[in-house]
Amino acid sequence: MSIQSGGWVIISRIKPLIQFVRSLKFQGFMVVFFVTLCSLIIYSRILMASYDKNAYDYRVSTIREYGTTIANNLSVPGSVTKDSITEYESEIKYFSSMYDGRTLVIDKNLRVLFDTFGLEKDKTLISEDAIASLGGKESIYRNSDKNYVELILPITNTNDKSVIGILVFSFSLKAPMSIGDKLSYTASTILVILGAIVMIIAFGYAFSVSKALGKLSSEIDKITDGNIEEIDSVYSYTELEAVSSSFNKMLIKAKKLEGGRQEFVSNVSHELKTPMTSMKVLADSLLSQPDASVEMYREFLTDINNEIEREDKIINDLLSLVKFDRKTGTINVKPTDLNELLEQILKRLRPIAVKNHVELIFESFRAVTAEVDEVKLSLALSNLIENAIKYNKEDGWVRVSLNADHKFFFVKVVDSGIGIPEEFQDQIFERFYRVDKARSRGTGGTGLGLSITKNVVMMHHGEIRLYSKEDDGTTFTVRIPLSYIPPKPHTAKKKGGGFRLARL
User: Fold this and answer.
1) Which chain regions cross the lipid bilayer (predicted)?
2) Exposed/middle/buried for 338, CB within 10 Å: 0-12, 13-18, 19+?
3) The pLDDT of residue 437
4) Cα gap 342→360, rounded to integer Å
5) Domains in the chain and their CATH numbers?
6) What is the pLDDT of residue 500?
């Protein structure tokens, strides 16, 4: 086997291990296990240190209390001598044996007058701590192994407070340390048991999280495979339930967009095909009648010309939709006199209003100048006003008003027309949507005007609102900032070798 093939074998074996180590299951287990285990160890250490300190402090305070009593008794005669010690010897020996210790009574000349072990009696004790105690200072010492403690107390004359001797107590700490060792062993045992329990809990928790995420991942994979249905909610954890809910909202919107796209393509095909079909029928009719009169040719060609104009209007509106797309379209903003703009629009549309026997009224509450794209906004407002004229009643009226505050300007188009049923009001801004398809085609509409209007308003960072009641007229309100707010710059990202085009 070559070195290269051997390397691939090693990598193929190590890769699953690396993936396992990187998995949430493993890392979740390690985090929960080690955090809990470290917490237990630290707690047990603190507990044992606290016991050791409390046991030591209690033993020292007991010895100090007893030593202070002995020192007070020995100070009564005014000096420390062998005779003054005699009546307390038995008590001192008993106390020393009870705490497994040793007691020395030393006079002010550092001569040992009494030793419970009898080893240092009548000897002179040379010690820095003993000499310091003659100055009235108490000293305490604990050896490095912590096996015993030495406490030195001065014996003070009750009259003049002079030091007449010292007491030296050496006592063992084996008893409390033995208890501490037993507690330490018990704590270690409990720690091992708790560690095992924590390991099981950590593994169960990590497995539960991993399982929930795996379920969510498999549901998302179904979407990737083309099954655009709502995913099953993952109720194991609040956050995952929220993620599932967000995915379902996204899927509902995606299905709605997909349905809209399919309907849009179908409508585009139908709208473009209808005039072509009409022209073909008219042309075939002429071709089937070689002896047709000039009047018939003129009539048929007029109809063909009308269908061509209709086709041209549909194509122009489609191109406008692409050009006015608020994400990709450009906007040429400049200060514009909106009063003059609306007057020009109304002047251009007044012949249509006269033809339809509709009164056209313009109300301006103040002079308004705003930063807008004059061409695009003119098209948007024209669509609103023209629709109000065409879908009106005989001898009806259309009222257009202009107003502004310190931040926005408002254009309101109110008509006395046929109105829009409430169930259709959420859809009128969709492309090719018509409430009354037969009547819309009769008025020459393509079903794209309101969609174009909404796109233009959105390009200006404004909003358009609708209020309508069937057989009681319609009101459109447009609100746009007086000062144009430029969009934040962004960089187009390449995908699949090219920039993504605006979708119709």
Assistant:
1) 26-43, 183-207
2) buried
3) 47
4) 12
5) 81-176 (3.30.450.20), 238-319 (1.10.287.130), 329-486 (3.30.565.10)
6) 34
DSSP letter (8 states) at residue 428: T
Backbone angles phi, psi at 396, to 5 degrees: -85, -170
**Contact, 56 vs 64, CB < 8 A?**
no
CA–CA distance, 402 with 278 (Å, rounded to integer) = 42
User: What Cα–Cα distance (Å) separates residue 310 from each residue in 59, 168, 275?
Assistant: 108, 119, 7
Residue 430: strand, helix, or coil: coil
CB distance 449 to 387 below 8 Å: yes
Q: Long-range contacts for 430-438 (Cβ within 8 Å, ≥24 apart)?
A: 430/260, 431/264, 431/267, 431/321, 431/504, 432/263, 432/264, 432/267, 432/268, 432/271
pTM tops 0.70: no
Task: Quickly tell me which residue has 């497995």 as its tokens.
Answer: 207
Low-confidence winner among 12-21, 184-193, 342-351 (lowest mean pLDDT) = 12-21
The DSSP output letter for 423 is: G
Q: Is 226 helix (H, G, I), strand (E, B) or coil?
A: coil
Q: Are 240 and 212 in contact (CB under 8 A)?
A: yes
Q: 503 pLDDT exceeds 70?
A: no
Nearest residue to 380 via CA among 443, 326, 307: 326
pLDDT of residue 207: 77
Q: What angle do CA 483, 411, 442 make, to 5 degrees?
A: 130
Residues 6+ apart with CB under 8 A from 273: none
User: At what angle are helices 174-224 and 24-74 packed, to 10 degrees?
Assistant: 160
CB atoms within 10 A of CB 319: 11
